[in-house]
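Q: Joint fold for the lines below.
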Amino acid sequence: MGGTPLPEGIKLIDENGKRVDGRMPDELRPLRIEAGVLKRADGSAYLEWGQNKVMAAVYGPRECHPRHMQDPTRALVQCHYNMASFSVDDRKRPGPDRRSQEISKITSEALTNVVFTEYFPRTSIDVYVEVLQANAGTRCAGLTAASVALADAGIPMKDLVASCAAGKVADTMVLDLGKEEDNFGQADIPVGYIPRTGEIVLLQMDGDLTTDQFRTGLGMAVDACKRIYEVQRDALRRRYTIPAGGNEDADNPEVR
Amino acid sequence: MQRNDSRESAREIVVPGDLLADRSMKAGPGTYVENGNIYASLLGIKSIRSNTIGVVPLSGQYVPIRGDMVIGKIVDMGASNWLVDIKAPHPSPLHVNEVPWRVEFGETGRFMTVGDLVLLKVVGVDELGRVQISMKEHGLRKLAGGVVFDVAPAKVPRVIGRSGSMIQIMKNLTGCRIHVGQNGRIWIDGDLDNILRAVEAIKLIEKEAHSRGLTEKIKSLLDHSPSKGE
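A: Joint structure:
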């Protein structure tokens, strides 16, 4: 954060208060989610959020491996976050690293809060998050996609988890940081949120903020999560509504 | 299609966390109660039956319940038991006392070996998710010959139909012997053409499980594709 100086000629916030990519401070990047995209997975979701492209797949509940990790009282939600080597400009060295282990851990913990794990003792619910293209905010994108994939897999949950980041860029609080803002901005707060109960299941902070700035940022992220939640719900409903309508037509040959 | 519009609106798709009803109703399957309100816990179709509100799932793994008839596959053998995969999260042991034959210690392989298919009943599931299965009931047996394939467990009720109507139609029109396990495994035996017709019909049911008038569609599909034998 703030380590590298900002390249010449780039203004993170311009005279009109617009950001590098032309967004207003409280504007999200365009978000699109599709549920049920992988045939062999029990549940899946594909998400495009600005330049981010993320695929999430859910398998299980299935036998937990390694065996010593299984819990006789509940299921384990195990997330595996991975960035493809081609997901960033410089080739990312493939394989797990400190960062992806951390993101896997926080995603698992966020999702454990909503899944009824006690329904599936001794099992594991495996969530795979593959980042195909990264442009800042992939942990939020991954968590958002993963919770859609879990619902698609028919796993009982209290609610979906929506996730979004807020941050400080050029002394202004902004929502959903892009790559330049993330690299040259001053702070970043990813938030995972359960819209129905208002619980926060993921909260991290990178950089320095005053208490007031933090409160503003958190409020912005929570509001954004509510909007993202609607996109998630829509993706799940769409998965089944369209074919159902198509079938209704097929019932009656004249309409075709 | 105004005719269908009103019925279509009755099939409401709900998402986990959706508020279904307040405390005036009873919480059925696929729901949970918090602060007296009933919420959906699954992605599925809202269903109201008398005073109970529930969610009929559209996807999901097989969860064994006592009394389920399932089709299992032997995956391992012990001296006094077989390990059977019933598509539950864990393989279930089938003890020699639970089979209709008298099996001497160490002689399990003479009755059933790895890869064999068996028609079983779930006799019990404990709180740790351990499943007890049995073959000691009328009609339960080893399935020899035929073909077996899997459908999504959530679609099984549709394949069977209300009190077995759908499966009965398929049996009558194809002349095949069909067993549908609650775990989504289906076994069909008959002559090849008829098996293929039945498989085609079941694939159609699986694909269009949540559309109406499915029984009629299956009837006409099977009526219009007579087997070569006829």
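Q: Anything notable?
A: Residues 22 and 37 of chain B are 4 Å apart (CA to CA). Chain B has three domains: 2-57, 69-143, 147-224.
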